[in-house]
Amino acid sequence: AAPAPLLALAVALRALNCVLVRTSFVPDEYWQSLEVAHRMVFKYPSRAAASALPASFSFQLFVILNIHNYGYLTWEWANSLRGYTYPLIFASIYKALQLLGKDDVQLLIWVPRLAQAVLAAFADVKLYSLVQHLENAETAKCVFFCQLCSWFAWYSCTRTLTNTMETILTIFALSYYPIKGSKMGNSCKYLALVALAIVIRPTAVIPWMPLVFSHFLQEQRKADLILKNCIPVGLVTVGTSLIIDRVFFGEWVLVQLNFLKFNVLQNLGTFYGSHPWHWYFTQGLPVILGAHLPFFIHGCVLAPKRYRIFLTAVIWTVVVYSTLSHKEFRFIYPVLPFCMFFCGYSLKHLKAWKKSAVSFLLLSNLLPALYTGLIHQRGTLDVMSHIQQLCHNSDQSQTFVFIMMPCHSTPLYSHVHCPLKMRFLQCPPDLTGNENYIDEADVFYSNPLGWLNKEFYNDTLLPSHLILFNVLEQEISPFLALRGYEKTATVFHTHVPQGRVGSHIFVYRRKAEMNH
Questions:
Q1: What does the pLDDT look like over 164-179, one tens digit per residue?
Q2: Per the UniProt record, which residue ranges are transmembrane (predicted)?
Q3: Is residue 52, in this structure, part of any structural domain at all?
Q4: At which of 336, 360, 375 does a domain end?
Q5: Of 375, 403, 435, which residue is a domain's last?
C-alpha cells in the first residue's frame, strides 16, 4: 500500500487543482452529468425557491408553470444514448445537500468537482502503488511526479466528464491487472472496474481490448476465467446498469447498444465536426502529452518487454479512434496514465540529467495548466453568476433569459439553481435522415436579425435578458436598440475567438419602462 503522506499530498494537490480550474472545456461536463443530476433531484422547484416569489403566486400554480422548464435534458437522453449510472453519483451528492438543507448553488457547483478531484487523487496514488510493485519506489516516484505535473491531467481530472471517470477507473483497474511478474493481479476486481468504466462510457472497451486479450492468452485456466470471472462480472454490471436506467427512463433500454449504434455504425458524431485520419498522431497525442512527449518516446525504447502490452494499448486505442471521423482531445485521455508509466520510466533512468528534466517538466507544464485552467474559455462560467443574481429579483416570474450563443455554450440550472425561465439555441442532429436538415442554431446564425424579429414579433414574448458573444452584437444592434435593451455587463471569455465564439460575452437587459 502507498504511504499515507503520499495520499495526503495527492488529495491536497488535486483539491488545489480543482480550485484552479475555472474554465469550461466541453459542454458534456455539465450537460451529460450535472444538468442531468440536477433534474433528477430538483425536478420540482423547492418551497424555498417558491418563497422568493411574490405572495400572490401560489406554490401550486408555480409548480405547474415551472414543471417543464426546471431542468433540461439534451437529445441524447431523449434517444437513450446515455445511461444514468454516472449522473447518479452527482444526483446522490445533490440529494444529500438537499436533505441537509445546504443546496446552495455554489455547493452544487463545487462539491461534485471536489468529489471528482478526490477520486483523481486516489487514482494517482494507485498508479504509484502499481509501479512500486512492478518496479521500485524510485520509479514509482518518477511516474507519480509525471502524472501530477501533466498539464492535461491537471486541466481534465477535476471535471465532471465521463472521460475523466473512465480514466480514473482505468487506473484502478490497471492496479489489479495480472501483468506478467505481478503478484497483485486479481481478475475479478480488475474486470469489475473495467465493466463499470464501460457502463459509464462504452468506448472504455477500446483500450482494454488488447489487455484483456493478452490476459486471456497467458491464463492457464481459460474456462475458469470466462465462467467464474467474465460472465458473472458482466451480468452483474450490465444488470445493475439496466435497473438504474429502467428506474430513470421508465422503460427497459440498453444504452450502451444505442451509443454504439449512433457513434460507430451511423457515424452521426461527424455532425459535431470531423478531422483527418492522422489527427491523433499529429495533434491529439502530442498536445495532451506536451513536454512529456520526448520522455514518453525514450521510455518506450527503454522499458522491458513485459511492459509492451501497455504500449500496445496506447497505439491500439489511438488507431481505433483515428478511424472515427469526430475526434477530440478528451477521447484519448484514458491512455494518458499508460503514457505516464513510460515517462516516469524514462525519468528514472536519466542519471545526470534528472534534475534538469524535472525542472523542465515542471515549468513547461505549469504555464499551459494555469493558462487553460484560469483564463482560456472562462467567460461562459463567469456569466452564470450574473444569471444567478436574477434569482433574487422580486419579479422572478417576469425574468426570461435568452442565451444567444452556439448551443450548450453555458451550463444551465445546475449553475443557477432557481426556476428562471431560460432558453438557448438548440442543435440536435437529425435522426430522421432528412437531407436538408438545419438545426435551430444554424438557422439563427444564417440571419440573426431576421430570426429575432420573426421569433419575437410580439413585445410580450421578448426576453428580459440576452446573453451573447461580442461578435454577434453589431449584426443584431438594430434589434437591441429598437426593443430597448441596454448592456449591463461585459465578461472576458478567451484570447483566441473563433467563428461564432467571441473574446467577450455581453449581458443585455431590457429597460424597465419597456417591460410595462
A1: 999 999 999 999 998 8
A2: 190-213, 225-244, 277-297, 309-325, 331-350, 357-375
A3: no
A4: 375
A5: 375
Question: Does residue 343 sit in the same domain as residue 195?
Answer: yes
Residue 56, in any domain of the structure: no
Radius of gyration of the chain (CA): 25
Distance CA 367, CA 364 (A): 6
Does any domain span residue 388? yes
Q: Please, is 448 exposed, middle or buried when counting C-beta atoms within 10 Å of its C-beta (0-12, 13-18, 19+)?
A: middle
- Pair (344, 488) in one structural domain: no
pLDDT in tens, 337-369: 999 999 999 999 988 888 899 999 999 999 999
Range of the domain at 396: 378-510
Rounded distance, CA 122 to CA 127, Å? 9
My answer on whether 335 and 483 are in the same domain is: no
Residues 403 and 422 in one domain: yes
What is the spatial distance between Cα 152 and Cα 369, in angstroms, rounded to a whole number?
Answer: 7
Model confidence pLDDT, tens digit, residues 425-477: 988 887 777 778 888 899 999 999 999 999 988 888 899 999 999 999 999 99
Shared domain check, 392 and 299: no
Question: Quick count: other Cβ atoms within 10 Å of Cβ 183?
Answer: 7
358-385 b/e (C-beta count within 10 Å ≥ 16 → b): beebeeebeebbeebbeebbbbbbbbbe
CB 401 within 8 A of CB 421: yes
Tell me how far apart the alpha carbons of residues 109 and 417 are, in angstroms, rounded to a whole number.
Answer: 10
Sheet containing 504-510: which strands, arranged edge to edge? 421-424, 400-404, 465-469, 504-510, 485-492
Report if residue 196 sits inside a domain: yes
The pLDDT tens digits of the residues spanning 99-155 come to 998 989 999 999 999 999 999 999 999 999 999 999 989 999 999 999 999 999 999
> 482 near 435, Cβ under 8 Å?
no
- CA angle, corner 179, sides to 175 and 180, nearest 5? 145
**SS3 assignment, position 405:** coil
Same domain, residue pair 435 and 319:
no
